[in-house]
Amino acid sequence: MIRPVLPLVMTTAFISNAYAIEPIPTESGFSGFVNVGVGGMSVESNTLAQFGSVDLSNSTINSIDGSASSEDSAIPVIAAEVAYTFANSRTQVFIGNQLEDYIRFDFSTLAGIRQEIGKAGVLGASFLYTPLATEVWSDPFLTGSPRTKTDRTANGYRLIWDRMYGTGLELRYSYRDVDIDDELSGESQGLESEDVALLNRNGDLHRFTAQYTFTWDSPRHRLVPLFSVVDLDADGDAMAYDGYSLGANYIYSINRWRLVTNVYISELSFDEGHPLFDDRKIDSSQFGASLSAFYASPFGWKNWLANGTVAWFDQDSDVNFYDSSVGLFSVGLLYRF
Questions:
Q1: Domain ranges in the chain?
Q2: So what's the pLDDT on residue 217?
Q3: pLDDT value, residue 56
Q4: Which H or E run contains 99?
Q5: Which residues of the chain are modeled with pLDDT < 50?
Q6: Residue 69: which residues within 8 A CB-CB, separation 6 or more?
Q7: Do 1 and 322 meet the contact criterion of CB atoms below 8 Å apart?
Q8: CA pair distance 90, 27, nearest whole angstrom
Q9: For 29, 126, 218, 221, which has the most beta carbons within 10 A of its beta carbon?
């Protein structure tokens, strides 16, 4: 299954130093960015229903034995952050979509604080909340009749330690409380109550990530390999999993251009077998890649960046029902202040 916040799985890198928001600017005052654009998305999923106004799958399926059909949609691309820096204390407070998250296609909204602590680096703490809930099917296994949508939120917090002791090392931990308003998975299939309980998708999601930034011929080349471990302690054991992911992000800068290339692989292992699929576990492998291009000062506009992205994600599960994919492209204009 695709993680319901689609772009989270397409791990896109930090933008290059020339266009990254410094953790703590050197002068007091407001800073931030606004990005507005449009794009298109092609999604194959049996579990996702809608994101905002964008439909992600058909409401009616005739069988749970096959893979999902494709759904194509136009999408708006909107993100923004406002921050205020207290330069003397090396403190910054912020709210919105952090630029580095937006470049990763993570549209989570944060409110938090960053604090520089001398040579030790920068510490950050923030609340994560979902301003626009993703809708999933309350019972994705209902066949022959329209399925009902229900909200899925994943609120929590994030802790970051960046630039540890002057190095390129960053550690981050995030926690999310995954909540599905009306969880009815499997109830249409005549399962026993204990089997229905195995399919409960509510739970606690933990992710720990370590990454290191290498630069050479600065600022032309920047490479950020990363490693993550993830654990979903779901209420239903057939939905609970742990796993790991590997990513590599490469930024090439030349003149007014910044090119950001990303690759991503992940392996997820589930705790128990799925009662609707002969007690097979829905273990899966995930693959993704993206390419983003940024062009500074288009039409001579200072502090503006024209940008475009193409991205692809694929999940191959041991159960065909959970096979899924996402294709995405977008174009936009980003203003930094």
A1: 6-336
A2: 92
A3: 85
A4: helix 99-103
A5: 1-21, 102-105
A6: 44, 57, 58
A7: yes
A8: 9
A9: 126
Q: Contact at 8 Å (CB) between 81 and 336?
A: no
Amino acid at 220: R
270-302 in b/e form (b: 16+ CB < 10 A) is bbebbbbbeeebbbbebebbbebbbebeeeeee
Could you tell me if 239 and 232 are in contact, meaning their C-beta atoms sit under 8 angstroms apart?
A: yes
Pick from 131, 214, 258, 230: nearest CA to 173: 230
Select from 107, 105, 128, 109 the least CA-distant residue to 11: 105
CATH number at 6-336: 2.40.160.40
Which tokens belong to 59? 């409401």
- Among 84, 114, 110, residue whose Cα is nearest residue 97: 110
Taking a C-beta distance cutoff of 8 angstroms, is the pair 12, 290 a contact?
yes
CA pair distance 272, 43, nearest whole angstrom = 27
Residue 15's nearest CA partner among 252, 188, 215, 231 is 252
What is the enclosing helix (H) or strand (E) of 207? strand 203-212
The pLDDT value recorded for residue 10 is 31
State the alpha helices, DSSP H only, in 104-230.
Answer: 193-197
Count the alpha carbons within 13 Å of 67 in the hemisphere toward its beta carbon.
15
DSSP 196: H
